[in-house]
Amino acid sequence: MDDSLSRVRDEVVGCVRCPRLVEYRARIARERKREFRDEEYWGRGVPGFGDPAARLVAVGLAPAAHGSNRTGRVFTGDRSAAFLVRAFHRAGFANQPTSLRRGDGLRYTDLYLTAAVRCAPPGNQPKPIERARCAPYLERELRLLRETRAILALGGFAWEALREVVARVYDVDRPSASFAHGVCVPLGPGKPLLWGSFHPSPQNTQTGKLTLPMLVDLLERIRGAYDRPGPARQS
């Protein structure tokens, strides 16, 4: 049976591969944060979201306990999402500057947004084995997103996950470059560029380590790189 993004989505939503994460996401959904006590939490795996013809694929860390684990959409409903989607909007990838809930009208153009781990982890710190168990979902997404020209790791955790995944998906050596904001690694002729950005967490954005102009500038550089004439991507 042919694979599809909708099949990956359904499997992510129903995934129970990581007992620690399954218990945590369900407990958070039961207990809820006082601010959201009247809302029904998603409390399941969070699938990727965006344009199936995207040339840019952005990969985050994992759902936030009261963000995506509550809303059911990647980078939705928390401060990281608020910052990131403003940047996507300013750079022309999003039709609106907010990401509050599923069904709020948000659409991405030329962008697909996903994560290295699909369930909210305690302390926002997934274990290496949990990242490894989620890796096949990311691999399948990248194989299905056939127009990809650039892959953006949002943070060091996503960078490490992608170093392993892109080697398998694009049949290349594991990239050796260390993570840094703005780092760019060509994966080979006709293959995507792998980029890095600081994660849009409050820890980074409130300290000025990552500013909105910095991220918008990087997104525009990424688009400029793949908009330039060059060899077609190899499928």
Task: Walk me through what this model shows.
The protein has one domain (5-227): 3-Layer(aba) Sandwich (Uracil-DNA Glycosylase, subunit E). Helix content is 38%, strand content 11%. It is built from eight helices and six strands; from the N terminus they run H-H-E-E-H-H-E-H-E-H-E-E-H-H. The two termini are 19 Å apart. The model is unreliable at 230-235 (pLDDT under 50).
Instruction: Name the CATH superfamily classification.
Output: Uracil-DNA glycosylase-like domain
Shape: globular
Query: From N to C, what is the helix and strand string?
Result: HHEEHHEHEHEEHH
Mean pLDDT: 95
Query: What's the number of helices?
Result: 8
In short:
This protein is of the alpha/beta class and 235 residues long. It is 38% helix and 11% strand.
Relevant terms:
235 residues, alpha/beta, Uracil-DNA Glycosylase, subunit E, six-stranded mixed beta sheet, globular, disordered C terminus
Secondary-structure map:
Blueprint: H1 5-13, H2 19-31, E1 49-50, E2 56-60, H3 68-71, H4 79-90, E3 111-115, H5 128-144, E4 150-154, H6 156-169, E5 184-186, E6 193-197, H7 202-205, H8 212-227
Parallel strand pairs: 2-3, 2-4, 4-6
Antiparallel strand pairs: 1-3, 5-6
